[in-house]
Every structure is written in C-alpha cells, then in structure tokens.
C-alpha cells in the first residue's frame, strides 16, 4: 500500500530522514518506534506532504510526491498529530466533521462515517456538543483519533497517541484501536511511539527509526493481528 524508495526528507535546509526504503502492506498495523527526535513525526509529515523530499513515496502504487498536502487526505489518508490541533471554539462533533466538510462528502456518507466513529468511540457521542476547548488532554486525543478516522478510510497515522495519557486513558485508547481493527480489518495503521512496550501484542510489525534511518525490529514475529 505505502512504499518509500530512497527517500530523503528535509525541513528547511535540515536533513531529517536519510535514504529510507521500506513498505507497509494493506491491513497492516505498523509500530514506528524511536526516541524523541529520531524522525518519527517527520516521517508521518513526509507522507502528508509537509517536507522537502527526494526519492519516491508511493501510495497504492502511485507517486504521492506530486500531490499537494491538501489533496492527500482525499486518497483515504487520516492523520492524528501528536499535539491534537483541535479548534477550541468548535464543538467536539464539529471538530470530528472537519475532514468530511473539507472533502465535501455528501450528507449520507458523512453520517455513515460518523456513525462508524461513534461505534469505535461511543464516549465522544455523549460529548458531541461540548466545546473542544473544554475537554481534557486525553479526551482531546480521542477527538483527534475520531477526526482522523473520518477521512482515513485506507490509512490512519497516529503520532505518539499514548504520550501524556494517564494509565486508564491509555488502556481506553488501546481498546478503541482494537475496536477499530475489529470493525475494519482492511484499514492500515501506522502508530509512532517512544515506548515499544505500549504496542506489544498490538502491532503486527515494528520498524525502528534512529537518526533518520529505519531498520526492522519486530515486536511480533508471527505478525499476528490483534
């Protein structure tokens, strides 16, 4: 589904990723493990088109590089950044619906996707009318996940989703990811994390990123899906 071929990525004049070659298969759950500053976020931002790239990034066999960032979510790619980036004056549901509005989805398709999101994250339905500025940090991560799911029909990328979560909320977030996987076995997940133990038993494969370079580091040799 997703392939990096000799990809080097820079932010400004600073080279972050160096000569990456790897692929992510459809329906795979990939853990991207690395310390802070290793290049995890830059790799996701490269997929979204926010870095200067040499080499090729392919999605479903077609080059992503020629596409401007605004066109990439329309391919079915959802992205939940580490800092959530919610609009505090909007309600929880309005934040969730933003990608659908941007993609100009019809009312029927928008409702279908929203219902699916609420099936995975039922607590957000109860919070739908609450201003996003009034939710906790952990709840905000759930809203950001829901927003990514609205547009990420093929690939969903989650950047450090467990960072800063209390243990109970971390468990709830993990349960939501398992519910997503149970609801849609075709979706591909890429999850970045500094602590590999948090994804043990969930990821089907692991890549380790260090100083902008990627190597295999399987947490689950049998590649067993959750």
Structure description:
Helix 3 packs across helix 5. A hairpin with a 2-residue loop joins strand 1 and strand 2. This protein has 6 helices and 10 strands. The C terminus is likely disordered. It has a 6-stranded mixed sheet, with helices on both faces. A 4-stranded antiparallel sheet has the order 2-1-4-5, covered by helices on one side. By secondary structure, it is an alpha/beta fold.
List keywords for this structure.
alpha/beta, six-stranded mixed β-sheet, 226 residues, 6 helices, globular, four-stranded antiparallel β-sheet, Rossmann fold, 31% helix, disordered C terminus
Q: Could you state the oligomeric state of the chains shown?
A: single chain
Count structural domains.
Answer: 1
Mean pLDDT: 90
Q: How much strand content do the residues show?
A: 25-35%
> Which series of helices and strands comes N to C?
EEEHEEEHHHHEHEEE
The proportion of residues forming helix, as a percent range, comes to: 25-40%
| CATH architecture assignment name | 3-Layer(aba) Sandwich
Discrete helix count: 6
Assigned CATH superfamily: P-loop containing nucleotide triphosphate hydrolases
The end-to-end distance, rounded to whole angstroms, is 20 Å
